[in-house]
Target: Glycolate oxidase
Amino acid sequence: MIYKRIDQADLKVLESIINDSERILYGTQINEEFSHDELSGTESYPDVVVKIRSAQEASQILKYANQEKISVTPRGAGTGLVGAAVAIEHGIMIDTTLMNHFLELDEENLTLTLEPGVLLMDLAAYVEPKGLFYPPDPGEKSATIGGNISTNAGGMRAVKYGVTRDFVRGLEVILPTGEIVDFGGKIVKNSSGYAMKDLMVGSEGTLGIVTKAILKLLPLPKKTISLLIPFPTLRQAIGTAPLIIKSRAIPTAIEFMEREVIMDSEEYLGKKFPDNQSDAYLLLKFDGNSTEEIENTYDSVAKICLEQGALDILIADTDERNESIWKARGSFLEAIKGSTTYMDEVDIVVPRNRINAFVEYTHSLQKEIGLRIKSFGHAGDGNLHAYILKDDLSDTIWQERLSLAMEKMYAKAHELDGQVSGEHGIGFAKRSYLNESIQPEIIGLMQGIKHVFDPNNILNPHKVCED
Model:
């Protein structure tokens, strides 16, 4: 499809909708940051960036764009990793970051209604002093909640609490044709037709633009304790995770990490990790209403770890110790990025009992292909983040080896009954791997859904399942 590029007549229409020239960026006013996301390597400038403040503005823009066949790309903070918020066909970029207000805290229904531009870290700071808790915990705390909804973000607490989709009760959505619709609400149960709300979560801005969300909250646990557990080998560390889950003493988080990534983090933060002598670690978090309650849970888990060869059990039972460990864990992505000239990543998810096989495969690929690959991830839910490093390779050799590494890793994940993405999404960068990993009939269903929502394919084209 050939999309219309923005001209002066289109700009005048946008100005009449927005009525605030400072919220419309055009031409040289568009900062370089709007041409890419955090990592994917996909770059393309929009013709115009419009910073919306209301659902009505988004509705009018989409009605006009649909009529004129102008592509529209929704964008939050731009912290995605797969090019989902990159304007491949230029056109209009709708920036939702100014829609950053808390609208209602309903403590009777334990819900929070807010706009999509609210940052994840601001959400936590808003509800936790009130004794409430929003469990999804993606690593990038400066991401917007709209972006988290767009990708169905997961994070470290998914093993106990679930992912973003599990905490979205309702959504206000602008359809590509401009209509404003509401999916779900404050209700707990809903068997009223198809699960439209759940379809929107994880659709990466291809089916509609979220302008309001109703989130489920929980009472805030009064106490958290973390265990840092060194193991002689990564195989022993990761192999212990399914045994912990099987014991029914489910931690809030079960993370795995290797020594070389910890060393990168130490250099990046300029601070020592509590322990860096072992080759591999599990990092567990437990929460509850008292120290005694948590200790009763983690005692049995610690015993399992020691039986599987753990070298020690390091307990972080103060806020200061907890913060130092988890701050280091939160820095891993930036630390790895700082250790090389460029990198790309895979966000593969496999059954929990097969993550060891996948990690060992990535280790063997380093020698086979001639690339450094660093990994860490969520041992409790089978989601592995593997980062492929360019270092000093020429662009040509890098692209050849990167493509080969990606193909082999996604093929291995498929062999292990895994999926292309556990939480980062498909976007633009991973489409070909999705096409190879699932049945063509399923791709056809996805494309059919896209066509029903967006008959002119104006909203975020070339993403997820669309060529």
